[in-house]
Amino acid sequence: MAARLSTILRAGAVAIAAAMAVAACTSPDRPSVQADTIVLPTPLRSHGPSVATTIGQLQAALTAAGGRLVEPVGGYRPSEPPSLLQLPRAVMRADLADPDDGYVVIYQAASSSAARERALELADHVASGFGQTNFSPDTQFSVSVLGDTVIFASWSRGRSADPDRAEAAFDAIAAVGEAVEVRK
Predict the structure, then answer these.
(1) Distance CA 73, CA 80 (A)
(2) Any bridge partners for residue 141, and if so which?
(3) pLDDT tier, 1 (very low <50, low <70, confident <90, very high otherwise)
(4) Which residues make Cβ contacts (< 8 Å) with residue 109, sequence separation at least 6?
(5) Which tens digits make up the pLDDT trace of 74-92?
(6) The pLDDT value given to residue 25
(7) What are residue 155's DSSP bridge partners?
(8) What strands lie across the sheet with 89-94, from one edge to the other?
(9) For the segment 11-60, what is each residue's pLDDT rounded down to a tens digit?
């Protein structure tokens, strides 16, 4: 009985110490994030008008191709140039057999000219060796601009569980907006 009471008291002391450490890190006198720390934005859960319009056009294109656009269950973040890291973004997914296929990232830029600049930077980044590190060698990329949004998608025949369906979805997504060439 005494050993059990001692274990309970030790566990309580550890819990109190952990709570105090958390409180000390987030007190008003001490900010929880240092000024030089980069905080990455999470995917948007409520979409602004531009992103909602882009999602609607992507959905229409995929529906015409026999697919649909869904919100993914897990997170997804492709390799990106620094200029896109802080932009608000929405992540969607073409509903394909392979859960790693069909991701579409929609970035919200400040203006259509800024979206065009970011799309060119993204295309250059993806065309670079570093930008392709998380993709198989046969991956094809699509970068396009629709208003003040940048649309990014990729697909790989070799990694797809249903290559014909994945290619049709990729082609439908790539047809939305003004294409920006990605030279590999």
Answers:
(1) 21
(2) 154
(3) low
(4) 87, 115, 117, 118, 148, 149, 150
(5) 888 888 999 999 999 999 9
(6) 44
(7) 140
(8) 69-70, 89-94, 103-108, 149-155, 140-146, 178-180
(9) 454 445 444 444 444 434 434 444 444 445 555 466 788 999 999 999 99
pTM to 2 decimals? Answer: 0.75
- Give me the half-sphere count of Cα atoms (radius 13 Å) on the Cβ side of residue 50: 19
Q: Which amino acid is at 161?
A: A
Higher pLDDT, 62 or 32: 62
Distance between CA atoms of residues 105 and 183, nearest Å:
19
Residue type at 126 in one-letter notation: V
Res 45: pLDDT:
60
Question: What would the two tokens of residue 35 be?
Answer: 């000024």
Phi-psi region of 58 (alpha: psi -120 to 50; beta: other; left: phi over 0): alpha
CA dihedral (174, 179, 181, 184) in degrees, to 10, reads -20
pLDDT score, position 130: 78
